[in-house]
Design brief:
Elements lengths: L3 H11 L3 H21 L3 H10 L13 H9 L3 H8 L12 H21 L10 H8 L10 H11 L3 H13 L16
Helix pairs in contact: 1-3, 2-3, 2-6, 2-9, 3-5, 4-5, 5-6, 6-8, 7-9
């Protein structure tokens, strides 16, 4: 199995965008936390989250085939399959819990980060009900596919509100690293 260090090297070779790197890290953190909660392989789940969009910047027209093929060449079939399936409209089957977890965590984790970024307190005090309300506003983070969010939660078998709360909790534990801590007050 590829190590976390090897996965980070692959990501950094293919991705330079700070927002994509942060997205990769946030999905990695959420996937690791779910692996821990469910008794799954944290390294495999975390690396899958970290690498799911690794080729998106360098090869947008071929995404996710470049990273999927690279992982297959390294014998990482389970990770490759999950990444090949992380968008329901690609028509790839969901065979494992890893496949379902990635589809469930990708879009909504990005959406939670978008919600945090528009708040002065960022992740601090962010609640699932606020995120759900924002999901209803189609103009907010318009590139997030709301159907994917729902389909992912359904496939993974989680209540969307509880899922969002879990994601918020995980990201709050890493808010400084993710640069999502509350903004400092300018008052003296």
């Amino acid at each position: 199995m590829i190590t976390h260090k090897e996965a980070r090297a692959i990501l950094q070779r293919l991705t330079t965008s700070e927002s994509l790197l942060r997205h990769a890290r946030t999905v990695e953190l959420v996937m690791r936390a779910y692996a821990n909660k469910l008794g799954e392989d944290e390294n495999k789940w975390g690396n899958t989250g970290l690498l799911h969009d690794a080729d998106y910047q360098a090869y947008p027209e071929q995404h996710p085939n470049v990273i999927v093929n690279l992982l297959r060449e390294q014998g990482e079939e389970e990770m490759a399959h999950a990444i090949s399936a992380h968008y329901t409209k690609w028509g790839v089957s969901y065979n494992t819990l890893l496949d379902k977890a990635l589809i469930a965590c990708d879009e909504i984790t990005g959406f939670v980060v978008a919600c945090a970024q528009v708040r002065p307190n960022r992740l601090e005090g962010l609640e699932a009900k606020s995120v759900l309300k924002k999901l209803g506003q189609k103009s907010f983070a318009a590139s997030v596919d709301r159907e994917e969010v729902k389909a992912g939660a359904d496939l993974f078998g989680v209540d969307l509100k509880e899922h969002i709360s879990f994601i918020i909790n995980v990201l709050q534990q890493h808010q400084e690293e993710l640069q999502l801590q509350p903004q400092e007050s300018n008052q003296s």
